[in-house]
Design brief:
With 157 residues, the chain is mainly beta. It has a single domain, classed as L,D-transpeptidase catalytic domain-like. Helix content is 8%, strand content 38%. It has an 8-stranded mixed barrel. The longest helix has 7 residues. This is L,D-transpeptidase. Keywords: Cell shape, Cell wall biogenesis/degradation, Glycosyltransferase, Hydrolase, Peptidoglycan synthesis, Transferase.
Length: 157
């Protein structure tokens, strides 16, 4: 599997045989789970359905998978406490396992589960997200060209 997300270690690994890299991540504060509305990170086999953010600044703000025209700063962050920031790049995930992480109320894609950038002030290595897999902005920019459409992703404990 080119991308492996280890929930226990809060670590994303990329390995295509030629390149091996690892980065700290932050997954769901509420743990792991498949159900829509659970705010949990889904487990199992996935693939990247869409790559969003080509050419954007590493800290460009995205909302609804579109750029807002903003670039994240500490000041902007302070003005909007509690905002769930999606920055720089989005790797939108789709489940591969019908009834487990695909279709119905357990559909990863319909839950809008992404690998995406997070503000510099947000800690990594601890579960704090709303279900997505958060990465440092510079790290997700580094991962982005390595992991295109169709790249396999395994999310596991």
């Amino acid at each position: 599997m080119p991308i492996s997300v280890d929930i226990t270690r809060q670590l994303l690994s990329f390995n295509n045989g030629d390149i091996h890299r690892e980065w700290p991540v932050s997954t769901g504060l509420k743990g792991t789970g498949q159900e829509s509305g659970s705010y949990q990170t889904p487990l199992g086999q996935h693939y990247i359905r869409a790559c969003i953010g080509y050419g954007l600044a590493p800290r460009a703000v995205l909302q609804g998978r579109r750029t807002t025209g903003e670039v994240w700063t500490q000041d902007l962050h302070a003005q909007q406490p509690g905002r769930d920031w999606v920055l720089g790049r989005i790797l939108w995930l789709c489940g591969c396992e019908p009834g487990f992480n695909r279709f119905g109320s357990v559909d990863t894609q319909r839950r809008y589960i992404y690998i995406h950038g997070t503000p510099d002030c947000e800690p990594l290595g601890v579960p704090l997200s709303h279900g997505c897999i958060r990465m440092n902005c510079d790290d997700v920019v580094e991962l982005f060209p390595l992991a295109g459409y169709g790249t396999k992703v395994n999310i596991h404990l």
